[in-house]
């Protein structure tokens, strides 16, 4: 989206290096993510695209041996700074994982968990409203409105993933990170999620890691290509797929490796 | 001797020994003094109390005659059940020929009957097999287990949560882990010595009490619960933790809202296994004095008590044939207790699992 003809940059990474113990997983990543756009990260397995994604909400903190260097600036604030409150950060930056991982609780409780711990609803009515809007935005409301108090784990795979998306958007994040959200789903469920992503980009900035180049081409406006821990090329999806500058990008996109 | 219209207090205070003795002596009008004594010993040593109870229940019996069942002595009980070696010479038997003769007469008259002895559940231990009951040891076991549960469960669960979720992985925590596993393998008698040396000798806690027994047993149960709790915390899928963290939950919130509730069924079953182990434990209790002969029913964990397995041990040592049956009954109670505990655990588990799946 352009404002006054200038692209709004939501996330600005500078010289990001990531190490797992002694092994370096990411080398000097410089990547800007545009606001209210879908950015796809593609590349072969083990290239570091998921690692990069997990840097953005500091999920790598969970891994003991992982160290992140460099700056990741979101809203003029370096999230790798010591003063950064991880809880606030993760409230602003939601995440959807590869495998649907709803809490083993009811559908309602799955959605209401985030707003509850962040104190976003003052009353039961407010919470009901948040649950309803979140489920509607995730295009799941019609399917589950009669069984909100049944376990979320009883839904189908695609529904579970949409439940996870609804859970992520319940706290109104500015950015949603998606780590191969469709890899465990069938083509119909995948199509539903892709449609949903297109819808969500109006309110959120979306970064999606995907194995499927077709999916990247379908849903994203910008694409970054990772290879062996380096960001080889990034730019508008059109350009990356039709007219890549780098030979490796070309080879990967045309299916010569990966 | 009895006044007209005695009050309840008078009835309580009255001496029933003479009347009781007289009714026994009536069995053989020609008995001499020695024989009268033998007659008296045919029934339980508390026989006058049984008559008293009868009278207190129905004061209008005064001045009338009523047939009352008295508890037989344990030897005659065995005679009646056919377990007594009647063919031994008289000087090797505890039952005299005279007693046998009178007893056989009574049997012929249909005045002897086998009844269920409820006092087994309501009386404390006694040196007389027919009066010995498990009330003291049962309450002792209950109090011990409660003390054990209240100490071991919170400490073990918190320790497991800390070690599994919060502690850094370094040499020190490895060392602790090895020690916990070793602790689970320490012979129980060693814990008994610890209780004796620390709780009784240093802290001067009252001996023979369920409090000390419970603390000693909790030391034994601790590693069992820690290991079970850690295993079930480990079994919680990491994706659940990630989901909670990614929603902006703190480490503490993630643990308390998601990981710990999900691990509860496993933790509870581990706790029950530990408690069942503690319930059947004898050696440490013997060392801290819960093996004492206790003929009162404990009202709190601070009163002296025995416990069920120790009671079995005490009775199994006794020479009288009557205690063999007491031992069997006590074992059945102990096993029944264990079955009920496990059933209870299953019900709790089932409920939790329903809620969290």
What does this structure look like?
The complex is a heterodimer of chains A (258) and B (357). Chain A is of the alpha/beta class and 258 residues long. Chain A is built from ten helices and twelve strands. Chain A has a six-stranded mixed sheet with strand order 8-9-10-5-11-12, with helices on both faces. In chain A, a hairpin with a 2-residue loop joins strand 3 and strand 4 (23-34). The radius of gyration of chain A is 18 Å and the shape is globular. Chain B is built from 16 helices and no strands. Chain B has helices at residues 8-13, 17-25, 33-40, 47-57, 74-81, 97-108, 119-122, 135-166, 171-184, 188-202, 210-234, 238-246, 251-279, 283-287, 308-317, 322-356. The longest helix of chain B is centred in the C-terminal third of the chain and has 35 residues, at 322-356. Chain B starts with 7 loop residues before the first helix and ends with a helix. The A-B interface holds A 57, 59, 62, 64, 87-91, 94-95, 97, 99, 101-105, 113-114, 117-118, 151, 153, 164, 167-168, 171 and B 168-169, 237, 239-250, 253, 257-258, 262, 356-357.
What structural category arises from helix and sheet content of chain B?
Answer: mainly alpha
Report the sheet-strand fraction of chain A.
Answer: 25-35%
Rg over C-alpha atoms of chain B, rounded to the nearest angstrom: 28 Å
Helix content of chain B: 55-70%
| Morphology of chain B | elongated
Summarize model confidence as the mean pLDDT of chain A.
89
How many E strands of chain A?
12
Compute the separation of the termini of chain A in Å. 31 Å
Count the E strands of chain B.
Answer: 0
The chain-level structural class of chain A is alpha/beta
Q: Identify the overall geometry of chain A.
A: globular
| Main pleated sheet of chain B | none
Q: What is the gyration radius of chain A calculated from CA atoms?
A: 18 Å
Helix and strand sequence of chain B: HHHHHHHHHHHHHHHH
**Uncertain runs of chain A with pLDDT below 50, 5 residues or more?**
none
Q: What's the pLDDT, averaged over the residues of chain B? A: 85
Main sheet of chain A?
6 strands, mixed
- Number of discrete helical segments of chain B: 16
Strand order of the largest sheet of chain A: 8-9-10-5-11-12
Order of helices and strands of chain A: EEEEEHEEHEHHHHEHEHEEHH
């Amino acid at each position: 989206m352009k404002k006054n003809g200038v692209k709004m940059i939501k996330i600005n990474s500078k010289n990001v290096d990531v190490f797992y113990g002694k092994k370096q997983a990411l080398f000097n990543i410089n990547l800007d993510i545009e606001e209210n756009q879908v950015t796809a990260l593609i590349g072969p397995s083990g290239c570091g695209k998921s690692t990069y994604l997990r840097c953005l909400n500091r999920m790598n903190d969970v891994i003991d041996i992982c160290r992140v260097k460099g700056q990741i600036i979101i809203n003029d604030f370096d999230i790798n700074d010591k003063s950064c409150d991880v809880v606030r950060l993760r409230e602003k930056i939601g995440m959807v994982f590869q495998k649907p991982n709803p809490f083993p609780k009811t559908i309602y409780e799955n959605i209401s968990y985030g707003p509850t711990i962040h104190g976003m609803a003052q009353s039961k009515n407010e919470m009901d409203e948040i649950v309803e809007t979140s489920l509607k935005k995730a295009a799941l409301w019609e399917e589950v409105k009669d069984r909100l108090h049944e376990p979320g784990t009883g839904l189908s795979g695609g529904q579970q993933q949409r439940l996870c998306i609804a859970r992520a958007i319940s706290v109104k994040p500015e950015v949603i990170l998606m780590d191969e959200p469709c890899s465990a789903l069938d083509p119909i469920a995948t199509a539903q999620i892709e449609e949903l992503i297109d819808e969500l980009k109006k309110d959120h900035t979306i970064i999606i890691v995907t194995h499927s180049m077709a999916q990247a081409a379908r849903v994203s406006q910008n694409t970054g290509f990772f290879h062996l821990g380096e960001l080889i090329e990034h730019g508008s999806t059109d350009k990356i797929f039709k007219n890549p500058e780098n030979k490796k990008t070309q080879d990967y996109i045309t299916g010569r490796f990966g | 001797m009895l006044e007209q219209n005695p009050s309840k207090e008078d009835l309580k205070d009255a001496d029933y020994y003479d009347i009781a003795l007289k009714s026994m002596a009536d069995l053989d009008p020609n008995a001499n003094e020695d024989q009268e004594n033998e007659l008296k010993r045919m029934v339980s040593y508390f026989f006058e109390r049984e008559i008293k109870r009868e009278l207190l229940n129905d004061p209008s019996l005064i001045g009338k005659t009523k047939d009352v069942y008295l508890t037989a002595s344990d030897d005659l009980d065995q005679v009646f059940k056919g377990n007594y070696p009647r063919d031994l010479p008289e000087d090797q038997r505890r039952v005299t020929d005279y007693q046998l003769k009178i007893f056989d007469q009574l049997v012929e008259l249909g005045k002897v009957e086998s009844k269920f002895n409820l006092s087994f559940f309501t009386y404390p231990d006694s040196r007389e097999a027919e009066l010995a009951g498990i009330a003291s040891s049962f309450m002792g076991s209950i109090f011990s287990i409660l003390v054990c549960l209240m100490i071991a469960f919170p400490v073990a669960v918190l320790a497991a949560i800390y070690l599994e979720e919060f502690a850094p992985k370094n040499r020190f925590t490895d060392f602790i882990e090895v020690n916990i596993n070793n602790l689970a393998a320490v012979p129980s008698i060693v814990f008994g010595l610890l209780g004796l040396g620390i709780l009784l000798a240093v802290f001067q806690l009252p001996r023979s009490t369920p409090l000390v027994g419970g603390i000693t047993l909790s030391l034994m149960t601790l590693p069992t619960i820690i290991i079970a709790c850690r295993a079930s915390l480990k079994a919680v899928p990491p994706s659940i933790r990630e989901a909670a963290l990614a929603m902006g939950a703190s480490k503490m919130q993630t643990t308390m809202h998601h990981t710990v509730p999900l691990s509860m069924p496993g933790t509870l079953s581990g706790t029950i296994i530990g408690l069942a182990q503690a319930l059947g434990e004898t050696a440490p209790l013997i060392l801290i004095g819960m093996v004492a002969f206790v003929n009162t029913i404990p009202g709190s964990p601070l009163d002296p008590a025995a416990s069920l397995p120790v009671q079995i041990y005490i009775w199994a040592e006794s020479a009288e044939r009557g205690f063999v049956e007491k031992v069997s009954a006590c074992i059945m109670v102990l096993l029944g207790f264990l079955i009920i505990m496990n059933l209870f655990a299953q019900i709790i588990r089932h409920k939790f699992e329903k809620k969290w799946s």
